[in-house]
């Protein structure tokens, strides 16, 4: 008899954890993803700012599960989930399942602002980060030969929207790229014209962090020449000018959008109730209503605790993945399923060299020690000894030499497009 | 008074050497390239076979020339050279010159075979190498779920055309990727079905190398399960089937074309006589006829020595670059220009782990010692301590663990295309 088949969609933090948690279960697993690698998203902004290479934060999925004969990987994008027939349709073939774990994560949310969706840059995948890197470097090349001082100033104005960890870390990283790394490359460019602006719609940075640390973050960013504007929301961006909800304007070519996330488009391929941000409603045991064989976790799932939806962050996905795997094993063993309870972990964000904020249980701290903690936690969470070594080496190199080695404008996107058209 | 302006087109081995050789000359230099980095082309095949990351073999041009106030970099593609007015037109602005050094290198030559140009893969730039890497990995993903044994066999047949160093090294690297690295990733795939074929139109590999070393190379490739077919030329490739000039056929999805080079398209933008392979004819002093202020060097230049054109290899470009720079300095100092004489350096090619061939003057050797020499020469020729360290580390890692860490299918080309269209 064929073993029970568990299909997991998405090789992010949640999907990977679910596959690992099922390692000893009497099931065979197929992990489906449209990429062949797991991506360590929290460091994407470092690829975008020329500090890390894509391969430093991406890890081949097949390699993670080497030596597990009951594990299979299916490269493809899910187009439809047929809950009644227990079948998945992907662009590269169909899969039947006994249990299904949906862990496709989230995508950038522009809240319906079409001009922002069209002209801003995201930071959700490797392609995003390479596009941002190319763009940032191109702005300096263009500014270096621009005669019109107003245009030059716009080219050298970099705006990040969103005061969460991604926005704060990105703004800090751009500031260090501009302030510490690039000036010797452009001896004839006046770097005092550079402006870096962080916009946050709410009244504070890093929502949920204690006031003291929020203030520290604010001041640390200001020390790095980042203009932080709280209570400031974007309403339009045509590629040359941001229009704020308040009516103000910012002339810039660069808007990095880290201000919103919603459930991945996969949610639309599943005929099941959705809640806010297009997330799939789940039961206390993390199943879809009326489909106890289908679980949704992480950014894709809408789960309330103490009357509020859980945030779209990695720890939720990881804890829910373990829980969903456990519930499958309990079911196979004839036991009742258990309701999920989220345990809030710490908060950790860096603003740059020697500076970070950390909350762990009752402990709160900021500065050098928090920064060392940030470094170590991120190194340890990377998969594989090679990537840990490689990232450690890159960070040590930058720290010592104020140098970021990956400041390459590539791949040449237009060129790739042409080749892609040639080889479909 | 403005300093004499030397414009150099191309930041390959030749262009870089010319800019370095002019460091002490009383001139200002502008280096023009459509990329912002220098590329170490001899190791491109290692990016294509998932051993090195692009950033390992690419180096930001501006960083090379840091601290030289008379050096400028212009990012752009040359569209027209107006010899009469001493002006260059690029897609990002015009440049006037006093002296011009054309060092744009070569491009893939398909000898007019349209089907080959359309469906084969090149190995001349980073984009090429990423496209090849994506393709090779995709073939294994497709083969892993292919039911038809004939189609599966075609998916697992990899053909390299061209028995020069690039072809030999690529075939060896594909063999080790397939034989040593990938099998644990695809436990259900029968790797005995894989075929790697190296086609060479002439009767021997590595033209110009002594017979003994040519035989060694042939045997070393056979030991690595590479089928070497001499006196075999391609006439057509429709993406699924290669038709040989002899009439035979090979069912495959992969043809890597390392069988021909010609002068870069820049040659067409210069109104000056061309010789074979579209190369610009130059005088003994490396100038264009009737334009003593314009030099052409390397792959772009046609220069005969002892009745034969110089080969399109890096040492020619480097030696000619020094010579052109010297002639400019002699001219500025009121001295006569000197004719160029090429001194043949050695030959060095690796077939894989522990195996290489080397010719240095009267010395010829093969095997482990030649391989160690190959490693060292390539490490030393890379620019920058960081890249040397990083490449050494990657090679040591592979050697010890039979692992290539960059086996990532990315960037997602279709996705990039969409983004590119959104952000022109």
Automatic annotation (TrEMBL), chains A, B:
This is NADH:ubiquinone reductase (non-electrogenic). The keyword Cell membrane does not apply. The keyword Transit peptide does not apply. Belongs to the NADH dehydrogenase family. Transmembrane segments: none annotated. Its EC number is 1.6.5.9. Gene3D superfamilies: 3.50.50.100. Keywords: FAD, Flavoprotein, NAD, Oxidoreductase. It comes from the Bacteria. It catalyses: a quinone + NADH + H(+) = a quinol + NAD(+). It is an enzyme of class 1 (oxidoreductase). Residues 5-321 form the FAD/NAD(P)-binding domain. Pfam families: Pyr_redox_2 (PF07992). GO terms for molecular function: NADH dehydrogenase (quinone) (non-electrogenic) activity.
């Amino acid at each position: 008899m064929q073993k029970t088949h568990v299909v997991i969609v998405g090789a992010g933090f949640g999907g990977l954890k679910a596959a690992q948690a099922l390692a000893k279960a009497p099931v065979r697993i197929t992990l489906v993803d449209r990429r062949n690698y797991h991506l360590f998203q929290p460091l994407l902004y470092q690829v975008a700012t020329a500090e890390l290479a894509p391969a430093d934060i991406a890890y081949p999925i097949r390699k993670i599960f080497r030596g597990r004969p009951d594990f299979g990987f299916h490269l493809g994008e899910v187009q439809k989930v047929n809950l009644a027939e227990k079948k998945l349709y992907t662009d590269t073939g169909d899969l039947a399942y006994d249990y299904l774990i949906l862990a496709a994560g989230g995508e950038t949310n522009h809240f319906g602002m079409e001009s922002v969706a069209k002209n801003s840059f995201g930071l959700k995948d490797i392609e995003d980060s390479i596009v941002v890197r190319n763009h940032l470097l191109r702005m300096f090349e263009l500014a270096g030969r621009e005669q019109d001082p107003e245009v030059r100033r716009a080219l050298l104005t970099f705006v990040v929207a969103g005061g969460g960890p991604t926005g704060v870390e990105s703004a800090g990283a751009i500031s260090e790229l501009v302030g510490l790394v690039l000036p010797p490359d452009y001896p004839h460019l006046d770097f005092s014209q550079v402006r870096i602006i962080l916009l946050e719609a709410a009244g504070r940075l890093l929502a949920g962090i204690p006031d003291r640390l929020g203030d520290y973050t604010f001041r640390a960013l200001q020390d790095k020449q980042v203009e932080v504007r709280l209570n400031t929301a974007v309403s339009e961006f045509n590629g040359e000018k941001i229009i704020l909800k308040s009516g103000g304007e910012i002339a810039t070519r660069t808007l990095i959008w880290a201000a919103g996330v919603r459930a991945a488009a996969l949610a639309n391929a599943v005929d099941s109730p959705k809640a806010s941000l297009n997330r799939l409603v789940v039961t206390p045991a993390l199943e879809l209503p009326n489909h106890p064989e289908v679980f949704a976790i992480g950014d894709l799932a809408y789960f309330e605790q103490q009357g509020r939806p859980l945030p779209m962050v990695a720890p939720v996905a990881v804890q829910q993945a373990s829980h969903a795997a456990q519930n499958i094993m309990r079911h196979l063993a004839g036991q009742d399923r258990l309701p999920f309870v989220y345990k809030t972990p710490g908060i950790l964000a860096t603003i740059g060299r020697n500076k970070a904020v950390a909350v762990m249980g009752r402990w709160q701290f900021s500065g050098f020690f928090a920064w060392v903690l940030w470094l170590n936690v991120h190194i340890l969470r990377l998969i594989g000894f090679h990537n840990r070594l490689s990232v450690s080496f890159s960070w040590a190199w930058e720290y010592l030499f104020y140098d970021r080695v990956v400041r390459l404008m590539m791949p040449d996107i237009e060129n790739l497009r042409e080749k892609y058209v040639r080889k479909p």
